[in-house]
Amino acid sequence: MPEGINLAKDTAVSLSGYFFEDLSIGMEESFSKRVTFREIEGFAEISGDNNPIHLDEEFAATTMFGGRIAHGFLSASFISTVIGTKLPGPGSIYMSQSLRFLAPVRIGDMVTASARIISLNAEKYRAVLACTCTVDGEAVIDGEALVKIPSRTA
Amino acid sequence: MPEGINLAKDTAVSLSGYFFEDLSIGMEESFSKRVTFREIEGFAEISGDNNPIHLDEEFAATTMFGGRIAHGFLSASFISTVIGTKLPGPGSIYMSQSLRFLAPVRIGDMVTASARIISLNAEKYRAVLACTCTVDGEAVIDGEALVKIPSRTA
Predict the structure, then answer these.
(1) pLDDT of B101-124, one tens digit each?
(2) B40 has pLDDT over 80
(3) B61 in contact with chain A, both atoms CB, cutoff 8 A
(4) B71 contacts on A by Cβ (under 8 Å)
(5) Is B10 on the interface with A (CB under 8 A)?
(6) CB of A11 within 8 Å of any CB in chain B?
(7) Mean pLDDT across the stretch A127-144?
(8) What pTM was estimated for this model as a whole?
(9) How close is the nearest chain A Cα to the Cα of B25, in Å?
């Protein structure tokens, strides 16, 4: 396994996100990904969360959910993807995130994570973003992110 | 890839966590895992967060962190592992989680996630847990989890 991947050379990944001065309230970005058993199995291995509600169909069928569901943090990580790669993107510092888990995500669901700027602090170069994850238009997670953003002048 | 893993037969994973009546304030559990580049690469693939601060050593060396750091949500997912597998464990419903990212986690760091019950609501069968992730005793993440727990009587 390589000790480092030089994304700058190999892919179109941006190395710099927004500067604080280029942000305005209402700006929004999103990221969508389908949650298959492959993602759930991988997330269980990486996180160590092998709760059978995610992995064991026989057990999960006996619960209130009636079958396996994705880890809440798996879908929530898509919010982090929006923050870290799109808005504000690379260079910003993730300070905090709140999450409310509103409804389960099931295997095969397409999850869309969105983040929208709702507040800007020009003295501290910080932004608050309202965050949601939806499946078929229904909110499954919501919360807020606080991010510090590089300034052109500071 | 199997469509389901029958953990009940294959492993020692518990299928049931605590009942609400068995919880008390001060109870605490933890989970430790070393974050290697394997976890970071896997998390990037699953979440879609390919921010070069996590993957591109050449870029990361030019930032305030001086090198690659783990995704905040990767370490935070270990909190979810404590909640979902230990305290309260399987059967509980994860309602919300707050996270403050206090310090970076670097490749090779051993992260210990802990959750401690700080409040119990006997009318709604809910618990609040104070959560931390530490590296070498230093807090890198903190926050609170709100969880609904099965009751023996309800």
Answers:
(1) 999 999 999 999 999 999 999 999
(2) yes
(3) no
(4) 77, 80, 84
(5) no
(6) yes
(7) 98
(8) 0.90
(9) 23
